[in-house]
Amino acid sequence: MNDALLGGFVDAAVQSSHAFRAALSVLSQPGNIRDLSGAVPPAPLSVAAGVLLLTLCDGTTPLHLAGAFDCAPVRDWITFHCGAPLVSAEAAVFALGDWQALQPLGQFAIGLPDYPDRAATLIVEMPALEAKGAVLRGPGIADVAYLSLPEVAAFQANRALFPLGFDCFFTCGTKVAALPRSTYVEAV
Amino acid sequence: MTDQAYNFAYLDEQTKRMIRRAILKGVAVPGYQVPFASREMPMPYGWGTGGVQVTAACLTPDDTLKVIDQGADDTTNAVSIRKFFQRTAGVAVTEATAEATLIQTRHRIPEAALTTGQILVYQVPIPEPLRFLEPRETETRKMHELEEYGLIHVKLYEDIARHGTIATSYAYPVKVEGRYVMDPSPIPKFDNPKLSNSPALQLFGAGREQRIYALPPFTHVVSLDFDDHPFEPSKAPHDCDLCGAGESYLDEVIIDDLGGRMFVCSDTDFCRTRCEAGHLGALGVPVLKGGA
Predict the structure, then answer these.
(1) I need a labelling partner for B225 at 20 to 30 A (CA). Which of A32, A161, B60, B192 fits?
(2) Within a domain: A106
(3) pTM (2 d.p.)
């Protein structure tokens, strides 16, 4: 059997509901790290990124695959399981890749002044994900939180655009964290 | 018993994905009203179709759901929505605020403090705080874009000019994180302070108006006011006649045709818990141990 047909949700309604709650939890509390499981996407896609795609993407959400993630197995798997149109970075509602491949960040939609929700969501594949590193403050954070972000300056520039800007999910293996545009980021 | 004729939590997966994406963008831009493709629900507009759609998109089978209408768990709106999700999602339900993981509410915030991990879903009739001042959507959208909120201060000022005080007592406008002015839904202004820095995630759904907005936990929310007329949360100057609570929001109940009235907690779970703990108000009767 074709590998692209395998690795989706077994019980889509229930598994996607758990996955969404985890995604909602990490986005509403930046710095939190949760587990996502239930999908077995093809390499180099992580389990967490695969679950996020299955939960959030469909035929109405143009998706950009960056760098090594723009390969035939990943394309086929997404086409079969999500049906998301694969597009260039400028047209993307969701973008998937490692931090290097997603550069330059200026190519992604940051929303319109009257419709700031029309901004891209980046799913950033990380080599490691830990609750330490950059200091986070802002909505969702009682005092301070910490997250091992790939860099600091890009997120400070993104925050300066508020209420415009992109939002990020970070994935590593089965782990997921997030950083909405509303968070203030400082180096340690 | 789950009704197998429906998908889990009634909505189809495509619809839930669309609502979930709107919720995530709402969380990313606190106080901004995200447009979404609201569906027709098997209940009339005004009964909480927005809240129901947000709840349906958030529910997991592990959740414990509480539904309140003006603080009460046992009114028609609350009972029918609770039964709807019992039937279509098979979730556990409760009336105890502390036991609930997801609370759908119409026009109240529970008295008991919410905790991290809880989600409070508001039913919103008119999400746009500027709508009664400026009927055109194109204009209000521009006003939000430009942070042009002078009009809403004029409205509060006219209250003062006419009544000597800010007479707006519910749906009292707030500013979120110093950016967006937001309608907190028609909660009494008594509840406004609880919006700010709540450990719970607060989601707002307006079905007819097709908007979703959100307050992440620990978001700074300020009720609009003036230096010389500061915001004051208000309630009836009484204690609850059933449980004696002095700090809860009260409903006034007419009890005869001779002008008799009593004041009772609007939050039925809060009032019952206190009565069962032995607190007694002026007209209360002691709860019998082992009684109904």
Answers:
(1) A161
(2) yes
(3) 0.96
